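Hi team,

Filling in the usual template for the complex we talked about on Friday. All components are listed, including any nucleic acid strands or ligand strings, so the model treats them as one assembly.

SUBMITTER: L.P.
PURPOSE: interface mapping
COMPONENTS: four
RESIDUES: 1596
SEQUENCES:
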Amino acid sequence: MSSGIQKIEWASGFMSTLNTISEEAVLRQAFQGLRVGLVLHIEAKTAVLASRIQQAGAEVYVAASNPLTTQDDIVEALRSKVTAVWARRGEDSDEYISSIRNVLAAKPEFIIDDGADCIVESHRIGLGSVRGASEETTTGINRVKAMEKKKALKYPVVALNDALTKHLFDNRYGTGQSALDAFMRTTNLLVAGRVVLVVGFGWVGRGIAERLRGMGARVLVSEVDPVRAIEAYMEGFEVLSTLRGVKIADVVLTATGCIKAITASHFKAAKDGVIMANAGHFNVEIDVQHLEEKAGGKRLVRPNVVEYNYNGKRLYVISEGRLLNIAAADGHPIDVMDMSFAGQFCALQYLIEKGDVLGSRLVYLPRRKDLAIAKAFLRGHGLKIDRLSRQQRDYLGSF
Amino acid sequence: MSSGIQKIEWASGFMSTLNTISEEAVLRQAFQGLRVGLVLHIEAKTAVLASRIQQAGAEVYVAASNPLTTQDDIVEALRSKVTAVWARRGEDSDEYISSIRNVLAAKPEFIIDDGADCIVESHRIGLGSVRGASEETTTGINRVKAMEKKKALKYPVVALNDALTKHLFDNRYGTGQSALDAFMRTTNLLVAGRVVLVVGFGWVGRGIAERLRGMGARVLVSEVDPVRAIEAYMEGFEVLSTLRGVKIADVVLTATGCIKAITASHFKAAKDGVIMANAGHFNVEIDVQHLEEKAGGKRLVRPNVVEYNYNGKRLYVISEGRLLNIAAADGHPIDVMDMSFAGQFCALQYLIEKGDVLGSRLVYLPRRKDLAIAKAFLRGHGLKIDRLSRQQRDYLGSF
Amino acid sequence: MSSGIQKIEWASGFMSTLNTISEEAVLRQAFQGLRVGLVLHIEAKTAVLASRIQQAGAEVYVAASNPLTTQDDIVEALRSKVTAVWARRGEDSDEYISSIRNVLAAKPEFIIDDGADCIVESHRIGLGSVRGASEETTTGINRVKAMEKKKALKYPVVALNDALTKHLFDNRYGTGQSALDAFMRTTNLLVAGRVVLVVGFGWVGRGIAERLRGMGARVLVSEVDPVRAIEAYMEGFEVLSTLRGVKIADVVLTATGCIKAITASHFKAAKDGVIMANAGHFNVEIDVQHLEEKAGGKRLVRPNVVEYNYNGKRLYVISEGRLLNIAAADGHPIDVMDMSFAGQFCALQYLIEKGDVLGSRLVYLPRRKDLAIAKAFLRGHGLKIDRLSRQQRDYLGSF
Amino acid sequence: MSSGIQKIEWASGFMSTLNTISEEAVLRQAFQGLRVGLVLHIEAKTAVLASRIQQAGAEVYVAASNPLTTQDDIVEALRSKVTAVWARRGEDSDEYISSIRNVLAAKPEFIIDDGADCIVESHRIGLGSVRGASEETTTGINRVKAMEKKKALKYPVVALNDALTKHLFDNRYGTGQSALDAFMRTTNLLVAGRVVLVVGFGWVGRGIAERLRGMGARVLVSEVDPVRAIEAYMEGFEVLSTLRGVKIADVVLTATGCIKAITASHFKAAKDGVIMANAGHFNVEIDVQHLEEKAGGKRLVRPNVVEYNYNGKRLYVISEGRLLNIAAADGHPIDVMDMSFAGQFCALQYLIEKGDVLGSRLVYLPRRKDLAIAKAFLRGHGLKIDRLSRQQRDYLGSF
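RESULT (copied from the run log):
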C-alpha cells in the first residue's frame, strides 16, 4: 500500500464524525451528477473529505489552497479517488493559480474553499456555473464579506467558521496542539520553563497559551482588546505590552490576524537568540521583510529555522513567518479536522438543498446541522449526555 | 471602627474599577436630585456601590435582594452612608417584600436590581416614577424578557449580565472561586483526589470545573448541550450522563439554571455519603423537596450541612440547595464585583443620559462603556496593553 | 448533639484510614493498661485519634500543642471520650506549659507530640515513665535530633514526618489547600490574576504554588536552593530573588522554615497594599517584630488582618505571621490528617511492640507499616491497584 | 555547512550549562593525554559533549549505545571533532558490539556509558586500562550494582542518574515532553479529550501524565506501589488497575521499568483501535512478542505504527514497543541533556581527580558538583536566587 493510501486510511479511521454525517448521502448517492471544486490544503484529512464527496456521487476536482503544504504522496493517492487533482508541492504562483483555474474550468456547481482564492477567482473570470460555496477560514470570510459589501457576490457562501463545531474547536484545540507540536519538532527545545510571549489572545492565542502552560512554559500575553486582556490576566498569564514582552521572551508566537504584530521596534528590543514563529493565517504578522532588508546576514540553522544577524543579535524565525503548524508540522490533528470537514460536508448539503433560495450573500450553517455534527462526534467517541425532561423544557421556556 | 465600616473600607480598597468609573460623577455631583432604589445582596461590596451613588449626589434607598444573605453589620454601617436601608438577616417573606415596597415608596427614578423582584413589584403596583432600571442576573433578565414579550414593560431595563465585563468574569472566575471556598470551609475536606460531578458546563459550570481541577479534584461533567459537552471533553473532563456520574461521584455540584437537575433517580443511584450543593441562582436544581418528603431522617451535622437518611444511605446537602457561594461563604470575591458594580454604575449613567429615548424594552450597556470599564480595571491593576497602529487598523478594515 | 460531638463525628466519617488501621487494636483492647500523653492541636481530627487510642484500652491524657488553635467545643466533647483534657482557647504561656505538665504528671508511657514541647519538658523534669514518643513535625524532629546529638535523649522517638504517608501528602496537599482556603476566607479577594510570591519551594511551597496556579494566580517563586529553583522554573513558575519578587507581588506567602524570610529590606521594597502571610510552622518567617517597632500605625482591618502603616505604605499581615491555615482557617483537611494520624497510631503500636529494643534515638516508622497505611487509604477510597506477578518480581530482582 | 554541523551548533547554543561547566577544563587543557571512551546515543547533543571533552585535551573514541538511534549526519560531523567514531544507523548486533570493542581497543582510561554495555564488555574482555566510568541510566546502574554485589566490579562507576540535576529533570521534564512530541508527530491525533492510561507513576510516568493533562487528555494511572498510587490520586488522576484501564483507554503508555506491564490479558481486554507505546528504557514493557505470535495479521499503517489484527480487533503499537521518544522523535530536549551531560563531564572530572582512591564500587557525584551544575544552569538562564544570611544559617544550624 502506498504511503498516501496508508495516511488516508489512518486519518479516515479517526474521522467518525465526517463518516457518520456523510453516510446517508453516500448510500443514497445524493450528489449524483454534481461537480464540486475543492481547494484545500492537500493532505490526508482533505483526501478523506474529497473521497466522501465523490463517493456520494459527485465529480470532485481538487487543487491546493497553499503551494507549500501539498503532500505529493497524498496527491498521488487522491488521483484514484476523485475525478481530477492539480497540485504539486512547491508549485510557483503561476502553477498555483492555474491549478485553481483548472478546477474552475470543470465548471463546478459548488466550491469548497480555504482562504477564498477560488471563490475570488470564480468571480474574476465571471464563472456562471457556481451555485454556492463554503469557506472555512476567518480570513476567507472577511474577503467574502468585502465582496458582499460591494454587492459583487454572485452566489451564496457559507461562513463555515461561524459554525460552533468549527470555531470553538479548530483554532483553540487544533492550533493549540499543532503549534506546540511544530515548535517542539522544529527546535528540539524544552518547553518547560521557557518564557513565551503569545501575541494575541483570540481563540488561537488562548489555545496556544493554555497548551504552552500545560507543557510547563511561563506564558506572557499581549493584546489590543481590553476585555481579552483581562481574560488573559484572570487565567493567570502575565499581561503586558508586546514591546515589554519581547524584552524578556525566549520565544515569541503571533496569533493576531493582523500585520506587523512583530516589527522593527520589537526586533530591536528582543533578546539575543529569541525564536519567533507565527500561528496566524497569513505570513504578515512577523515583519520578515524588514529582517530580509536590514539583517546583516541570514542562514538556515535547522530545517525550517532561519537565523538573522540583526543589530549584533541572533534572531530565529521558523518557516519564514508562515503558519507554523502547517509549515513545520502536520496541520491540525485529525480529530479536529473531522469536525470541521463534517461541517464542510453539511455546508455542501445545505447549498445543494437550499442554495437557490439563499441569495447571493454570506449565510450560516443552520443550527440543527451544527448540532447534528456535535451529536455525531459524541456518538463516535462513545459519549452519552443528558436530555432535558419535558418538565425542564417547560421551566426554561416559562421565563 | 465598627466591623461593618471595616469591611466596607477593605472592599473599597480593592474596587479600583468602580472608584475610577464613578470618579467624575462624584466630582460633578452628577446624580444631584435623583432618587435611586437599590435591591441587592446587602454586604460590603454592595455598600461600596450604594455609597458611590449617594456620593455622586443621589438619594439612595436600599433593600435586600435575598433575605438570607444580609449582613447586619453592613446594614448598620450603611445607614450613615445612604438615605435609607430596610434589611435584616433572616427576615421573612413579608418583611422581605415590604422592604422592597419601602424602597418603591420613595418613588425612585432608577432601580438597580438583582433577580428583578423590585422591577416586577414596581410594575405590579403601577409605580410611575421609574424611568429605568438595571438588572444584573440572567434569571432577572429572563423575567424582564417575559414582561417585554407580553408588552408589559413600562421602562427601559439594562441587561447588565450581557456586558462583557460582567458575564465573562463574574460567573466563571467569581463563582468558580467562591464555590470552592464555600465547599472547603463548609466541609474541611480535601479537594485533591475527590471525584466531583459538575452538572452543567455553562460559564458557572466551567469556572467551577477548572478551579476544582486546579485544586486536584477528578472532575466529571454532565450536560444537555452537545457542543458544550464536546468542549468539556476537549478540556479533559470526563463527560457522562448525570445518572452515571452520581454513581461514582463523592461530590455533586449543580450549575444548570434549571429545575431538578438532581432528583429522585439520582438520589437513588448516588453513593452513600455523597455531598451535594448548588451553584445556580435558585434552589431548584437539587430536588430537596423530594428528600424532605421521602427521607427517613434528617439532621444538621455541620453548620450548613444537613444529612438525609435516604434509602439506607447518608446524603449530605449544603445550605438547603441554595447558591452555596453566597449561603455558605462570602459571595463573589471583591475584584469580580468591582467590575460588575462598575457596570451597574455605568448602567445608571446610561439610563440617566438616554433613558427617555430608549423605549420600554431590554437594552444593553453600550460597547464603549463596557470598554471603559475594562480599561479602568486594567489601569487599576497596573496592566498596560497594546494599541493598534493606523496601518494595522487600515489592514483590519481592508477586507 | 453538641457542636463538638457533631464535628468529631463528621471528621470520623472521613477518616477511614485511621479507623481501619486501629480496628484490630480496638477489638483486641491492645493498649489495655497503658497511659498515653497526647499533645496536639485540639480540634476534631485530633479528637478522633485520641478517642481511638482510648477505645483500644489506653488511658489518654490530652493537652494542646498550641494555645491559639484549641477549639473549646472539641475540648468539651473530648472530656467524655478520654481520661483527661487540659486545654482552653487563648490560654497564656503559663497555662499552656502547666497543661503539658499535667499530662506528664499522669506518668504516660508514651507521648504523641506536635512540635516536641512535651518531649522536651519530659526530659527537663527527668520523667522516668516514658518508654517512647512520636513526633510529627519537621521542627519537632529537628529539636529531637539536637537532643540526640548531645546524647540527651532518654527514649526512642519516632520521626513520623519521615513516613511516606505523612510527608508526601500532609505538606503538599494539606497545606497547599488550606493555605488557599485561609487566604480566600480571610480576604474575600479573587485569586485569579493576582501576583503571588511564594518564598520557599519545599513541599509546602510547591503545594501552595500549584494550588495558587490552579486558582488562576500568577505565581512567583524565590528559593535559596539551586536545584529546587530549577524545579520551580521547569514547573513554569517565575523564579526570582525575594527582593525582586516583593516589588511586583500583590501577595507574599512564606514557606521557608527559616527566620526573616521577609524582613526590613523587603518591607521597604514592597508595593503599597501588599498582603503577607506565613505557611511555615513558626511565626518567625515574616519579621513582624520589625513592623511592630517601626510602623507608624497599626489597625485591624478585617478579622485576622492587620494593616501596618510603614514608610507611607499600607502593609497587611494575616494572623500576625502565624501559620495561616491553622490560625485563619481549619488546619489541614480531614483526609490528610486521616493518613497522618493513622501514622501516629502505627507509631504508637510500633513503640509498644519494639520500644524497649529501639534504644534512645530517633527511629523511623517501618516501611511495612507505612505501606499498610497506604493500602488502608486506597481501600477506604475504593481504589484498586496492580500487583507484580512472580515473573515481574523475578525480573526486577534479576539485575 | 553540513546538516550534522548545523545540528551540533544549534544544540551547543542551548547547552550553556555544559559549556560553563567545561570552560575551565578546556582552557587549562585539563584532560591532556587521557583517552575517553564514549558510548551514547549518537545525535547532536552527544556530539557537543564529545567535542567538549576532546577540546579539553582528551582523545575521544565514540560508539553508539543503541543501533537504531544513530544519526548518520552527526556521525559524519563528529569525525572532525573527536579522535574516532564507529557508528552507523541500523547496524546489526555484530556491528554494534564490534563498535564498542573498537572503543575498548583504544584502551580508554575512562568510559562514559548509557546502558552499561561498554562497562560490561570491558569487564568481559578483562580490559586493564580503565580507571573509572560513568553511567547515566537507571538500567545501567542496576547492572553495575549486580556486578558490585558479585564483587566483579574492577573500577569505580559514577551512578550519574542519582545526581539531583539528572534524575529530577531528565525523566520528568525530558521524557514528559518528548513522549508527547513523539505521540503527536507519529499519529497526528488530538491529545485533548483522549483517554490515556499511563502505566507506572515513577518520574517518567508522572512527567508524562502531567504533560498529557496539560495537552487536554483525560489521564488514567495504574501503579503497583500504594504510595505512588495515592500521589497519582491526589494529583487528580483516575487511579485503577491496568486491566480496568485498558478497557476504557484510547491510548496506553507504559513507564514501569518492568516486563509485561501490558500482556495477553490486557490485549484481550483492550478497546478496538487502542494505540500502545512504551516510554521505559527497554522494549519489554509491552509484550509485543505475544502479538507477533498470536496476531492474525500485521501491517505498517504509518511510519512507526504497526497494526496487529488480534481477536478481531485492531491494536496499534508505536515503534515496536521501543522507547518512543527516541525511536519516534528526537529524544530528550536539548536543555535537559545540557544538564545531564554537564553531569557526565563533572563525573569524568571527578574520576580523574579521585578515581584512584574511590575503590571498585558504585560512587555518587559529590553534592558540590551537583550544585555547581545547578548554579551554572541558573546563570545560563538568567535566573537569580536568594542566599541565606549568616543569621539564617545560624538559625537552621541551631536545632
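MY TAKE: The longest strand of chain C covers residues 35-40. Chain C has two domains: 3-168+332-380, 171-327.

Thanks, L.
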